[in-house]
Amino acid sequence: MTVVDTPPPLPVRDKATAVERAWGGVSPMLTRLAAERATGVLVREGGALHLEEGLVTYAESPLSLGLDALLTAHGTVRAEVWSEALSRADEHRGAARFLLAGGHLTEGALQVCHLGALYDAAYFALAPSSTPGRFRYGVAHRLGPVLPVPVAALERETLRRRDLLHRVWPDPRPDHTPLVRTHTAAAPRPTARQQRLLDRLDGTRTAADLARELGRQAFHTLVDVRRLAAAGLLAPRPEPVPAPGPATSAAAPAAPHPSSAPHPASAPDAEPRRPPAAGAPPPALADPPPPGLTERLAQHTTDPHITLLKRLRDALEAL
Amino acid sequence: MPGIDECLLEAMRLPGARGAALVDWTSGLALGTVGESPGGDHETTAAEAAELARLAAEHGAFAAGDDPGGERPPVEDLIVSNRDSYHLLRFVDTSFDSSVFLHLWLTRAEGNLALARIRLGEMAERLVLG
Does the distance separating the beta carbons of A106 and B127 come in below 8 Å? Predict the structure, then answer.
C-alpha cells in the first residue's frame, strides 16, 4: 500500500515576505541604513523613504497623497505657495522653513500634516514587495527636516497598521481593486465621512482614487473602506464573466498600483469559473474559501489535507 | 507658533498633569507624547484613547447639529473620570484632512477639570491656527 501519487506542490510564498516575516521586521535594509545613519532615499516597490542621518524625514508613495496634496486639497496652502517654497529650498534651508516663515501655516499644523503624510506613505512604501529596494546616498528631501521619525518607530507603526486593517476586515482585496456599492439589510448607518466615500463608488474607483479625490490620507481611507466592507456596504467589484482572449479590462484598473503585485490572491485569479491554465488540474468548485486564503491556489487542489495545511499557514501568518 | 512638543509641554504645566499626547484617532498613532501614561506605555494608551475618541466622533448622537456634512470634528471634547484621575480628550480642528486629538491625563487630587478643559481647548486652537 505504498502511496505513489505525488501530492500537489504546496503554494510558494512570496520570498521577500517570508524573509521579512522570519526576520521580524519590515525591511532589513532600512534597519541597516538607520544603524549607519545614512542620508539618501530608499526606493521600494510601493514608494520611497527619504532619510537624513538615519532618520526618516519624508515618505512618498503613488498610492497616498503627499504633504503638498494634503495641504492644498482643502485650501490650507495654495499650490503656488507650495511650489514657490519648493523652488526656494536649497541644501541648508528646506521648503518647510519658507512655508513657516511666510506665515502660511503654523509649525503645529505643518507637523501634524507632515507626520500624517509620512506614516501614510510609509505604510505603502513598506508593504511587502517582490523586488529588493534600492538606496541612493546623499539626496536629502527638499522639504527639509520637520519632525524626523526613527526607523524603528515607523516599522512598528506600519506593522500595527497592517494588524489594524486585518482586524477590521481580513480580506485585503478592497484595498486595491475598484469598489462597488452593495446593499444589505440592517447595515449600520455610515458616518458623514463614510457617506461621501460611498457616494463616489462607481465600480472604477479604487481606495487610492477615492483618497485622492477627497483629499484624505490613504490609510484612513483604507480603514473606512474595510469598515464599510465589513458592514456589507461596499465590495470589490466582481470580475466580469471571462470572455475568451486576454482579460485586459479586468486587470487594467489594478495595474498602476504596485501594491497589488505581491498579492497572489488578487481578484482576476479569484474567479472560480475562469478557465484553468493549460495543463492545470480542473478547478475545485467547492464552497468559496474564506478571505485571506490564496484563492488561486485553492483552485488547483481538492485534497482536504492540503486545504487544512494552507488554512493553518494563513492562520499562523495572521498572528 | 508652537509645535506639537511645545503644545504638550504647555499642557503638562496644568495643575495635576501626569501625561499628555497628541493622537490620531483613525489609526491610533501617537504623534507626540510627554510625561507618564496610565499603563506605562504611551502607544497602548494612544490606541485605546483613539478607540474611545472614534466611537464618540462617529456616533450621530454626540454630534453637533450645525455641521451635517461632517467636515469638522463633531465632538469638542471627552471627559472620563475615575477614582484617582481624569482623562480629557480635546479634538483638534484642522483645515486639512486629519483626525487628531489632545489627550491629557490629570490626577484627581490636584487636577482642575474646568480649568484644564478651557486651557486644552485654547492649546488645540493655537497648535493649528497660531
Answer: yes
**Structural domain tally of chain B?**
1
**A30 and A91 within one domain:** yes
Q: Provide the domain limits for residue B81.
A: 4-129
Contact between B129 and A106 under an 8 Å Cβ cutoff? The reply is: yes
Q: Nearest CA of chain B to the CA of A150: how many Å?
A: 12
Residues from chain B contacting residue A160 (CB–CB below 8 Å): 28, 43, 47
ipTM: 0.94
Same domain, A47 and A71: yes
Would the pLDDT of A57 be above 60? yes
Q: Choose the final residue of a domain: A236, A254, A277.
A: A236
Question: Where in the sequence is the domain holding A134, given as residue range(s)?
Answer: 24-160
Please check the confidence at residue A262 and state whether its pLDDT lies above 70: no
Total domains in chain A come to 3
Each residue of B24-80: pLDDT tens digit? Answer: 999 999 999 999 999 899 999 999 999 999 999 988 888 887 776 667 888 999 999
Tell me the CATH number at B69. Answer: 3.30.450.30
Residues A147 and A87 in one domain: yes
Asked if A112 lies within 8 A of B70 by C-beta distance, the reply is no
Substitution target in B66, B96, B128 with the highest count of A β-carbons within 10 Å is B96
Residues of B in contact with A122 (CB under 8 A): none
Please indicate whether, in this complex, the C-beta atoms of A119 and B27 are within 8 angstroms of each other. Answer: yes
- Of B18, B36, B11, the residue nearest B110 (C-alpha): B18
Concatenated DSSP letters of A148-208: -EEHHHHHHHHHHHHHHHHHH-S--GGGTS-EEE---TTPPPPPHHHHHHHHT--SS--HH
Residue A18 belongs to a domain: no
* Whether residues A191 and A301 fall in one domain: no
pLDDT tens column, A189-215: 888 889 999 999 999 999 999 999 999
Nearest residue on chain A to B3, alpha-carbon basis = A108
Query: DSSP string of B34-76?
Result: EE--TTS-HHHHHHHHHHHHHHHHH-GGGS-TT-TT--S-S--
